[in-house]
């Protein structure tokens, strides 16, 4: 079974993928008056779903071909509060990929003012859902991923890729 080529020529440009603009929902605001930390992940996840659709690995792929992705690792940094009424948009850079893994770096931005609210660095793994085991991507999907990864290699690298959690060094 083959998959159509990626429908969006923008995916082949050396720029991060941009999600649709998303609204902060009222029930996501916590007692501190800003977006609760859990819902940053919801916004990042919705954006990833948009990119996965373009790569051919969305819900129809899972249903027809029995493959999906799972998040194996995630590192979120909360940089600036975002509030109810703020429009949000996520940029996604495919940092690296191989036969079974996708390394992404995402930035959640205020959609009109452009400042970064949070980042999320993720390692996703391809799953054979029938066996419930990690498996290689099919060749047509791998070709889509390779084309995007190649385009993104020339994109500017955002600050924060590869950061780890740790206490600041004592001076």
Polypeptide structure, described:
This protein is α+β, with helices and mostly antiparallel strands. It has a single domain, classed as Hotdog Thioesterase (Thiol Ester Dehydrase, Chain A, Roll), CATH 3.10.129.10. Helix content is 24%, strand content 30%. The chain contains 3 helices and 7 strands; from the N terminus they run ββααβββββα. Strands 1, 2, 3, 4, 5, 6 and 7 form a 7-stranded antiparallel β-sheet that branches. A hairpin with a 3-residue loop joins strand 4 (87-97) and strand 5 (101-110). The protein is globular and about 45 Å long. The relative contact order is 0.22. The model is unreliable at 1-5 (pLDDT under 50).
Low-confidence stretches: 1-5
How many DSSP H or I helices? 3
Order of helices and strands: EEHHEEEEEH
> Could you say which structural class the secondary elements and strand pairing correspond to?
alpha+beta
Compute the number of structural domains. Answer: 1
How many E strands?
7
Main β-sheet description: 7 strands, antiparallel
CATH homologous superfamily designation: Hotdog Thioesterase
Strand-residue fraction? 25-35%
What is the multimeric organization of the chains shown? single chain
Give me a quick take on this structure.
The protein has 3 helices and 7 strands; from the N terminus they run ββααβββββα.
Keywords for this entry:
alpha+beta; 30% strand; seven-stranded antiparallel β-sheet; globular; single chain; 7 strands; Thiol Ester Dehydrase, Chain A; disordered N terminus; 171 residues
């Amino acid at each position: 079974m083959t998959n159509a080529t990626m429908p969006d020529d923008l995916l082949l440009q050396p720029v991060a993928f941009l999600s649709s603009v998303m609204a902060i929902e009222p029930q996501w605001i916590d007692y501190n008056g800003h977006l609760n930390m859990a819902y940053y992940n919801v916004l990042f996840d919705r954006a990833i779903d948009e990119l996965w659709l373009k790569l051919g690995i969305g819900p129809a792929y899972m249903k027809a071909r029995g493959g999906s992705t799972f998040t194996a690792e995630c590192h979120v940094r909360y940089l600036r509060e975002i509030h109810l009424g703020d429009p949000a948009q996520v940029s996604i850079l495919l940092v690296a990929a191989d036969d079974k893994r996708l390394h992404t770096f995402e930035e959640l931005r205020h959609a009109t003012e452009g400042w970064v609210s949070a980042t999320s660095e993720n390692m996703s793994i391809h799953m054979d859902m029938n066996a419930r085991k990690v498996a290689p991507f099919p060749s047509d999907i791998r070709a889509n991923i390779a084309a995007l990864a190649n385009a993104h290699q020339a994109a500017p690298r955002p600050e924060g890729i590869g950061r780890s959690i740790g206490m600041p060094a004592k001076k």
